[in-house]
Amino acid sequence: MPQPAPESQPRLSLGCRITMRQDVATLLYPEGAIRLQGTALRIVQLCDGVCSFQGIVTQLAHEYSADADRIQTEASAFLERLQAKRIIDF
Amino acid sequence: MLAGPLAIIAEVTHRCPLRCVYCSNPLELKSRESELSTADWLRVFEEAAALKALHVHLTGGEPLARLDLEQLLAGAHQAGLYTNLITSGIPLTGERLARLVAAGLDHIQLSFQADESELAQEIAGRDALGAKLKLVKEIHAQNIAFTANLVVHRRNLDRLDSMLSFIEALQPQRIEIAHVQYYGWAFANRAGLLPTRAQLELAQQRVAEAVQRTHGRIRIDYVVPDYYARFPKACMGGWGQRMMLITPDGKALPCHAAEILPGLEFANVRDHALSWIWQESEGFRKYRGEDWMQEPCRTCEHRSQDFGGCRCQAFVVAGNASAADPVCHLSPERALVDTLLRQVGNNNPELVPLWTYRINPS
Ligand code: SF4
C-alpha cells in the first residue's frame, strides 16, 4: 500500500471538503462524512496541496511538542486510510 | 434526543427521458403539475440543514428535467448541504454542467446501463450511451468529482468483466456497482432481473478483484443483492434513523417505497415542518426502533444491526409489513423467496424478458 512520500503534497480529493457548523468540523465526501477533531482535523487542514508531507509532520511535531517519528508513523497511516477512500490524494 | 436525518433524498421530479426497467420510482408517478415549487424546495433544504443533515441527493426521475435545478442546487449549497446530483446525464450540455457547478454542485453520480449500446438500449428503453460518454469528457474537463454507477442484474451480469474495464476506463473517483433492489418498476420486472446464483458468485469474485486492482485509484462500493443473502439489508440504516426521502409532490418518506404500505399516512412538507415530520409524524414513528417487531425479530440478536430488514419487502413478499424481512433465513416466509430463486434458475437465460418499461408521468 502506498504511503505518502516525504516530498508529496497531500490535498483533499475532488468532491471532499471540511464544513464547520457550531464548532464541529465534518469532512464531507461523496456518500459519507467523518467528524474530525484534534490531530486528525489538524492533519486534514494541513493537506492544502502546497505543504509537503514532511512539512506537515514537522509542523505537527512543533504544534504538539511531540516526537516527529511517532507523528510521521501515525499521520502516514491516517492519510493512507483516507487515500484508499479517495478522500485525500498525494 | 432523537438525532435528525443525516441525508435528504430529494426526488425533485418523476419526469425522465429514459424508461429503465429497474427504476425504483413507484408505478404511480407524480405529475409535473403536482411538483413542489422552487421556494418549497429551498425551504426544505434550509430546514434539513437546521436539523443537521449533511448531504442532499438530488434525484428523480431525472433531476435535469427541472429547469430550476440551478436554483435548487444553489439553495441547498447555501444552506450548507453537500450536494450530490444523481443523474442519467440526459440531456446535459457542458454549459449547463458549468452552471450547476457554479451554483454549488459538489459531486455528480452518472449511471450506466451497460458497456455497449444495444443492451444499454434494451434496459433504458432508449439509446443514451453515446451522450453519457460525451458527458464524462465534460466532467473531466471541468474537474468535477464523479461516481460512475452501474446497476447489475441477470441481463448484464454475463458481461461484467467487460463492463468493469469499461467503467474503470472512465476514471471516476468512485464506482458503485449495485445489484437491483426489487421495488417499483424493478419489482414489476423482477423475473427478468433476478440474477442466477452462478452469476452472483462470479460477480462477487470479480468485484473483489476490481477492488484490489483499483486500490488507491478508485473507491468501489458494492451493493449486494438482496434475495440471495442469509440476512436482510439494514434498510435505509433503520426506519426513520438516517434518511428522509421527499417525493416530487412533497411527501416525506422513510424510504423509496414506503407509500405502498397500507394504512400509513405520510405528511407533506407543504403542510408541516420537517422537524415535526421527522420527530412526531406517524409515518416516521411507526417502524422506528424495535417496539413494532414480531417474532423472530423481537428477540433476535441481530435486530440492532439489521432492524428486521425492509418493511416494504416484508409487505410485498410476505403480505405483512411488521413481519421479518422474508429474505432473512430465520423468517418463516423465507420459502417464498427460495421458490422465486428456484424459478429463476430454470429460466432460459437467452430469452429476452417481456419488460415492463417505465412510463413518463402525464
Ligand atoms: S429475525 Fe429479524 S432481526 Fe433477526 S436477523 Fe432476521 S430480520 Fe434480522
Could you explain the architecture of this structure?
The complex is a heterodimer of chains A (90) and B (362). Chain A is an alpha+beta fold. Chain A is built from three helices and five strands. Chain A has helices spanning 38-46, 53-63, 68-84, and strands at 11-12, 17-21, 24-29, 32-36, 88-89. In chain A, the strands form two sheets. A three-stranded antiparallel beta sheet of chain A has the order 2-3-4. In chain A, strands 1-5 form a two-stranded antiparallel ribbon. In chain A, helix 2 (53-63) packs across helix 3. By secondary structure, chain B is of the alpha/beta class. Chain B has 14 helices and nine strands. A nine-stranded mixed beta sheet of chain B has the order 7-6-5-4-3-2-1-8-9. Classes of the chains: A alpha+beta (90), B alpha/beta (362). At the A-B interface, strand 2 of A face loops of B. The complex binds iron/sulfur cluster. Iron/sulfur cluster (SF4) binds next to helix 12 of chain B.
Strand and helix map with partners:
The complex is a heterodimer of chains A (90) and B (362).
Chain A: E1 11-12, E2 17-21, E3 24-29, E4 32-36, H1 38-46, H2 53-63, H3 68-84, E5 88-89
Antiparallel strand pairs in A: 1-5, 2-3, 3-4
Helix pairs in contact in A: 2-3
Chain B: E1 7-11, H1 38-50, E2 55-59, H2 69-78, E3 82-87, H3 94-103, E4 107-112, H4 117-124, H5 129-141, E5 146-152, H6 160-169, E6 174-179, H7 184-188, H8 190-193, H9 197-213, E7 219-223, E8 243-246, E9 252-253, H10 274-279, H11 282-285, H12 303-306, H13 311-318, H14 334-346
Helix pairs in contact in B: 1-2, 2-3
The complex binds iron/sulfur cluster.
Residues 231-232, 296-297, 300, 302-303, 306, 308-309, 324-325, 328, 330 of chain B line the site of iron/sulfur cluster.
